[in-house]
Each structure stands twice: as C-alpha cells, then as structure tokens.
Amino acid sequence: MNGTMKMLAPIALAGALAQLSACTWVKPTMSAEAVRVAYNGDVTGCREAGQISVSVADKVAFYHRSELKVRDELETLARNQAAELPADTIKAASEPHDGAQNFTAYVCGGVRMRQRESSAVAPQRAAREGEAQTFPVKDH
Predict the structure, then answer these.
(1) Is 64 helix (H, G, I), strand (E, B) or coil?
(2) What is the DSSP letter of 95?
(3) Strand ranges, E, within the chain
(4) Class of domain 29-128
(5) Closest CA to 26 of 117, 101, 124
(6) Per-residue pLDDT tens digits for 81-111
(7) Model-level pTM greater than 0.85?
(8) What pLDDT shows up at residue 130?
(9) Angle at Cα 107 formed by Cα 30 and Cα 45, nearest 5°?
(10) Which of 32, 42, 78, 133 could join 83 via S-S bond, C-beta 3.0 to 4.6 A?
C-alpha cells in the first residue's frame, strides 16, 4: 500500500461507519402504525394480550450502534409483533440490554374498532376490484 492509500483507508472506514450509523434496519408494518406506545405506563382499562421479546444488533463488529437507534428499532419490532397478536398498545416491561428488550402488549379498544372498520371496507374494496358483493336482505 502506498502512502496515499494508507491515508485514505481511515477516511473510507470513517465514511462507511457514518453510513452504517444512519441505517435503520427495522421498518414498521402497516398494521403496526396503529399500535401506540404507553410511554407514561398508563394502560388503565386495557386487557393484557401477551408478552413480546425483541432483539436487534446493538453492535456491528467493533462498532457500537447509537443507543437511540437501537431503542427505536426495538420499539418498532415490538409494535410489529403487537399488531399480529392483535394488540393496539405496548408498554416496555424492561429497559433495553445488549440489544434486547421485553414489552407487554395490551388491547385498549382500538383493535376491535379497526377490525370493524376493515370489515366495513371489504365490500367497497370488492366493488372497486370488480368482484361480487353480497348484502343482507331485510324482511319488512
């Protein structure tokens, strides 16, 4: 390696690490967008729906990822899993440690409402897509 290459190698490595730190690897699903996080811990009137354990890489090789990014990704993963239960609220059950965290999922009312809305939208969607529709018949 010549002198110029030796000087450019650390600069290239620093650039690669800067790009890595900007990466967000976990994306929320469409359903997870409606899952709220009980940051204040208030889940009064909610029913527990289950426990969620999530983990992400908190370091890559010797590089430690931003604590804020790791927390954000853990929360996004928990929201994704809560939507599959289905639950509409999550609350942290522990602090993040080594890229892992536990959450408790709750149903606070929004899941039932979303299910009703989606069943009401289904006939409209079928009409737009050219499919057959059925309607209940009332006897007078």
Answers:
(1) strand
(2) -
(3) 36-37, 47-55, 59-60, 63-64, 89-92, 100-107
(4) alpha beta
(5) 101
(6) 999 999 999 999 999 999 999 999 999 985 5
(7) no
(8) 53
(9) 140
(10) 32
Contact 108, 88 (CB under 8 A): yes
Q: Any idea which residue has 């929360």 for tokens?
A: 75
Q: How many CB atoms lie within 10 A of CB 53?
A: 14
What residues does each domain of the chain span? Answer: 29-128
- Strand, coil or helix: what is 138? coil
CA dihedral over 46, 118, 86, 97, signed as positive or negative: negative
Across the strands, what pairs with 120?
none
Rounded CA-CA distance 116/95 in Å is 35
Letter for the amino acid at 95?
Answer: E
